[in-house]
Design a protein that fits this description.
By secondary structure, the chain is mainly beta. It has a single domain, classed as Substrate Binding Domain Of DNAk, Chain A, domain 1 (Sandwich). About 5% of the residues lie in helices and about 35% in strands. It is built from 2 helices and 10 strands, in the order ββββββββαββα. The strands form 2 sheets. Strands 2-3-1-6-7 form a 5-stranded antiparallel β-sheet, with no helix packed on it. A hairpin with a 2-residue loop joins strand 2 and strand 3. The longest helix has 7 residues. The chain is globular and about 45 Å long. About 30% of the residues are buried.
Length: about 180
């Protein structure tokens, strides 16, 4: 996984109001690709946990056309930029890219492919291997909520709850009556 957001968003929260942990959003999002923790920060879920992932980040002045044919999952969310800089960090918090943007509402469209192969091969891949998983992030001004353009991979299906994994060892099937 990797994260994105404007850390100055914390400055808009009222410290006198206690957090409501009873209504915490799903960190992976209901869409299985992007989870928005706050209006100014979110997480993109990868299939591989330990191997290399190719991430391309594009900045646009207006919304680019939606391209679905080469991707298994495409989801778009709103992102509030507070202080003018959006950071992208890997799972341990190390930044790998940032975008300077005027404060205001933006859209972040995430594309993914190869997450299922990344998940299957995560324990055999090393950082020296070629990535089997790829993400395209498009960032542009705009308002609005989540738009799910396409969801096809099993990784997202599992996170959404569409796919249930049988954890019983082989040969231990139980007969339901």
């Amino acid at each position: 996984m990797f994260m994105f957001g404007d850390p100055e968003g914390l400055s808009i929260e009222d410290p006198r109001v206690a957090p409501d942990y009873t209504n915490t959003p799903n960190p992976w999002g209901e869409n299985g690709l992007i989870g928005m923790d706050k209006p100014y920060q979110g997480t993109i879920i990868t299939g591989t946990k330990y191997g290399p992932v190719r991430v391309t980040i594009e900045e646009h002045d207006t919304a680019p056309p939606v391209e679905l044919s080469d991707w298994t999952d495409v989801v778009e969310v709103g992102l509030e930029v507070v202080a003018g800089r959006v950071y992208f960090t890997n799972w341990d918090g190390a930044p790998f890219h940032n975008i300077d943007a005027e404060p205001g509402p933006y859209r972040l469209r995430a594309h993914a492919r190869g997450r299922d192969e990344g998940d299957r091969r995560q324990y055999e891949l090393t950082m020296d291997d070629a990535p089997v998983e790829e993400h395209l992030i498009q960032f542009f001004p705009g308002e609005g909520g989540e738009v799910v353009h396409k969801t096809q991979d099993n990784t997202g299906g599992y996170l959404r709850g569409d796919i249930v994994v049988d954890t019983r060892p082989p040969g231990r099937e139980q007969r339901l009556q």
